[in-house]
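So, can you check this record?

>
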Amino acid sequence: MGAYWTISSRATRVDYGFGIRHGRREGLLTQDCALTCRDARQDLAVLQVSGKGLPFVSIVDPATVAIGQEVVAIGNPQGFANTVSDGIVSGKLPITGADKYKFVFSAPISPGSSGGGLFDREGRLIAITIASRRNAQNLNIATPASYADLEQM
């Protein structure tokens, strides 16, 4: 099971979109929450959870992320909570039919890490990890977290 990241003081959370329906991921209730919106094309979902005054992360503008920039991936692969690995942004993968892209990064992730966060060295959320190429070493994909803009989804 992946992770999710609180992105505002209103307890709004962003997660990867695969398998999320009506506030549930892979048949399991993630928390007392409601699905606010889901964008299958960007592979993102936004959930509204119960709670007030929750800590939250800042989201990085993807245009400011440079190839070669150091990053940290945090996830929950195979149930090992909050694993951390580091690497770099190694490329930008264009999204067909859109003026957007996904990040390619080298921080190692394992199956089950989808939905984890990709952070810069200042602890700001760059992207949500969504995939890893099984036939390649440390060739991983993440969707910029800013694409979870409620007004655009």
User: Anything to note?
Assistant: Confidence is low (pLDDT under 50) at residues 7-12, 16-30.
